[in-house]
Amino acid sequence: MLKRTYDRIYALFEESGGYLATRKMLDHKISTIHIRELLECGDIEKVSHGNYWGTFLHIEKPDNYRMIEACMTNPKAVICGPSACYYHGLLKKEPDKLFIATSRVDRGGMKLMFPVSRHYFSKESFHEDRETVMISGMPVNIYGVDRSVCDCIRMEDELGETVVDEIVRSYRKYGDSDMESLFDYADRMRVGRIVRNRVL
Questions:
Q1: What is the C-alpha to C-alpha distance for residues 117 and 159, in angstroms, rounded to an integer?
Q2: N or C end of the chain: smaller count of CB under 10 Å?
């Protein structure tokens, strides 16, 4: 590979904060042969289909990089459950698996380089309480605090009592007004009784 081509690719990764999609490289006349060459020598790392991390930049991946990589792979995916609670500060330790929500009609593959727990929601429920935040300059879809707590209480069989206890304990510190917000949300989602029994 010519040095000027290498330098151009390096600059593209640097400008984008370390992540780059195949389509952007192709738009800048970087061929698939160049991409394969960089992969083989370890200068870039494949994070999912069509997305790469520039290891040749010699920088650490950003905090919550798994959330970034999931939403790069499927821009409609939403970080949910305990992963969302971790982002919102309700869990001290990041879950071993990244919890992702997609619509029931979204059956596209999400091959990532780390464990994932994928949950499917109805069209109406999927869009409820969803927000987009910027993490290291990258857009990430994530559910709000109330939705995330309710989802974790419903997932207690999967998550375990200890994890849900920590989430509930952390949420209680928010105060009474936020507890009313939680119950209002739980009632709208038709899990009011379950959430009250777990939180009160």
A1: 11
A2: C
52-100 pLDDT, tens digit each = 999 999 999 998 999 999 999 999 999 999 999 999 999 999 999 999 9
55, 109, 143, 156, 192 from 74: Cα distances, Å? 22, 9, 16, 26, 31
In Å, how far from its chain's centre is CA 164? Answer: 20
Kindly state the DSSP code that residue 57 receives in the 8-state scheme: G
The total number of residues shown for the chain amounts to 200
- DSSP state, 97? S
The two tokens of residue 124 are 């109406």
DSSP 99-156: EEEEETT-------SS-EEEEEE-HHHHHTTEEEEEETTEEEEEE-HHHHHHHHHHTH
Name the stretches of the chain with pLDDT < 70.
175-177
Distance, CA of 41 to CA of 2 (rounded, Å): 15
CB atoms within 10 A of CB 31: 12
Matching residue, tokens 């009313």: 180
Backbone angles phi, psi at 112, to 5 degrees: -115, 165
- Residue 98 pairs in a beta bridge with 116
With tokens 């920590």, the residue in question is 166
Integer Cα distance of 167 and 170 in angstroms: 5
